[in-house]
Amino acid sequence: MVFGANVTLINPLGPTTIPIAPIMKGVITGNATVTVKLWQNTDEAIALMVSKGTDFAVLPVTLGAILYSKGINFSLLGVYEWKVFYLVASKDATFTGWKSLDGKAVYTPEGKGQTVDILMRYMMDQDGVIPDQDVKIFYLPPQEIVALFRSGKIQYAALPEPFVTMAISGGMGRIVLDFQKAWGQEMNLPDRIPIAGLFVNDEFAKANPQTVLDVEDMFENSIEWMNENTDEALKLSETYLAIPIPILKESMQRTSFYYVPISKCQKEVEIFLQKLNELYPQGMPSLPGKGFYGY
């Protein structure tokens, strides 16, 4: 067992940097010394995980599940991002349900099979709308979608925050669907989606159980500090993000970060992954084994 261990944690570069900035800047400390590396794309994250270049990883839950099924054994310790996806419509467009988009197009961040894409396809299917046939779905970088939306060239977009706020600010559009609320109603679950979580290398975890608890504790404390000190947390993350603080601050009102250990949300995660597997097996070809939920 290692006490006061030095560990590495990889985290996506983007708005999810905000909850971990208190650790990166030394505001939150603990029994472990955590070095945070920011990854810019999934290939980079996977390379670090496969090469044992990291002990912990912050990942989309869907990506972690896919990797676990492929033998990259990082178990899910807990979920911390629960709310971020919305459908926006331009100021002159209407939305009264997915059937109202028949013959129209929705733009969403590349590529096919990302979380909001699968959610949208599932909800269209439930409403009797055939994705790609009745409603076209196009994939572009989120910054490009925002620019096209604001210039009036596209009417509908399914986006995560802070791109939602960037798209509709100044009265350029409005939110017409909260994916979290729609999912909760559909599944008879709380209005939330297990979007991203904290993962640990199984081999490391088995050898260092106390360090895992220490890092999990620091991670949860960092998120709590961010929620209690949002302005300060945004200032701490300013060096990592190229998005204006006023936009980030507004977007945080529609984003939910709070840590729930897997022991308290496993059923929700299982239902989420099962539905994705049923609807879009190309994106979620198989479900992870039980080890995914506890090393």
Automatic annotation (TrEMBL):
InterPro entries: UCP027386_ABC_sbc_TM0202. Gene3D superfamilies: Periplasmic binding protein-like II. It comes from the Bacteria. It holds the Pfam family NMT1_2. This is ABC transporter substrate-binding protein. The lineage of its organism: Bacteria, Thermotogati, Thermotogota, Thermotogae, Mesoaciditogales.
